[in-house]
Design a protein that fits this description.
mainly beta, seven-stranded mixed beta sheet, four-stranded antiparallel beta sheet, 11 strands, 0% helix
Amino acid sequence: QVQLVESGGGQVQAGGSLRLSCAASGIIFRINNMGWYRQAPGKQRELVATITSGGITSYADSVKGRFTVSADYTQNTVSLQMSSLKPDDTAVYYCNVNVQHPFRGARDYWGQGTQVTASS
């Protein structure tokens, strides 16, 4: 059974920093990529950042230059370093792992979500 356990998050003043971490367990097939999504109240879930096993990263335009995603594919962990946080970054952040099943194709797994609040 795949489990994603997140840690980090919390409340900071605007301009502050936070670090999110996620550890995945129970994965026996190849991971295509890992990353982070977020969902603010009344809005759809959106991609924040992803990273492939080859180290290729992708970021939402709104977080480029402020957030850094990193991963250890040998340990199945992914982290998100967030700096210069803005009130607009306030959301529930979800860890995501995309796994390639041999017969069912690619499947997404999600963490339970962790609240990040940046207050002005």
